[in-house]
Design brief:
By secondary structure, this protein is of the alpha+beta class. It is about 45% helix and about 15% strand. The chain is globular.
């Protein structure tokens, strides 16, 4: 009678009820087999993510070496062969600098303000109310260019972008946290849209599209963007007129083409690794409840 009164008076499960609950468990060997399958998937996912991190670090190092430190030019000035490139690529670089108002620049190259070297908020067509891929700020990562959570949504108020654009968070604390993305997730010839708090960047010729993503990850550029912020506490945003005055070096067309070929190969490898990681994550998430419930049996090996 006491048990009946307790259940009527207080609806729910008590600690005592849980203690009496019997849960069927497979034998220890079966548990180990199931765990080993899940662990193998987790290890592979982790490895793919680490490889992608390394690939992006290589692209960032290349960007800095060629366009910030001018390592190949410095080497040729000193009579050395530039490191990490073949003779044909090395021949594309000048062997001297020339003075400009902004300081020395490789001969034949130019310092250009961002709003001359890039399109900032380039024109993209998407009608209000039209259903299109939508990306919220929450789907943008603080590391790596890939995104999550793209959905179909009717166009309202937001920024518009196409494949090859770079998205930079313009509001605090997202900017300081590093939220940046490279748009490569849209179907061909599709315009997407997203948060009003994105700055959309696109390099002009001869610079390749991925140059903008690498620039947006470069510490000096990020520091400039952060210093440009103004507004009330907690709602500070990048000031476009200040951002546009960041100067970038624009190389000759042959160097830009060589850089494009290298970073396109790196970008494609990152995309492939990300896709594999997503596939394995979905497989793991599908297997987990089936293995726990025992609906999926593993053969002893």
């Amino acid at each position: 009678m006491g048990t009946i009164l307790r259940q009527v008076a207080v609806s729910g499960i008590t600690g005592g009820d849980l203690a009496e609950l019997k849960i069927p468990l497979p034998n220890l060997n079966e548990q180990r087999r199931r765990a080993s399958v899940l662990q193998a998937l987790d290890d592979r996912i982790t490895l793919l993510r680490e490889i992608n991190t390394t690939l992006e670090a290589i692209a960032q190092a290349l960007f800095k070496s060629w366009f910030v430190d001018f390592d190949p030019v410095q080497a040729k000035m000193q009579g050395r062969a530039p490191e990490g490139m073949d003779e044909a690529t090395a021949a594309l670089f000048p062997d001297s600098f020339e003075e400009s108002e902004l300081g020395a620049v490789p001969k034949g190259w130019k310092w250009l303000p961002l709003n001359v070297a890039y399109e900032i908020y380039p024109t993209r067509k998407l009608k209000k109310g039209e259903t299109a891929p939508y990306l919220d700020m929450a789907g943008v990562q603080t590391q790596g260019h890939s995104v999550d959570g793209v959905i179909q949504r009717e166009m309202g108020s937001g920024t518009k972008f196409i494949n090859g654009d770079t998205l930079l968070a313009r509001i605090t604390p997202c900017l300081e946290n590093g939220k940046t993305a490279f748009v490569d997730f849209l179907p061909a010839d599709t315009t997407g849209w997203g948060s009003t708090e994105f700055v959309v960047l696109r390099p002009k010729d001869p610079l390749p599209p991925y140059h903008a993503y690498l620039l947006a990850r470069h510490p000096a550029f990020r520091e400039h963007a952060i210093r440009s912020m103004s507004g009330t506490s907690g709602r500070q945003r990048i000031q476009n007129d200040v951002l546009s005055q960041f100067f970038v070096t624009v190389p000759n067309e042959s160097v830009a083409k060589a850089f494009s070929e290298l970073v396109v190969a790196i970008h494609e490898a990152i995309c492939e690794g990300h896709q594999r990681s997503q596939t394995l994550s979905a497989l793991r998430n599908n297997l987990l409840p089936r293995l726990i419930s025992g609906h999926l049996k593993l053969k002893a090996g």
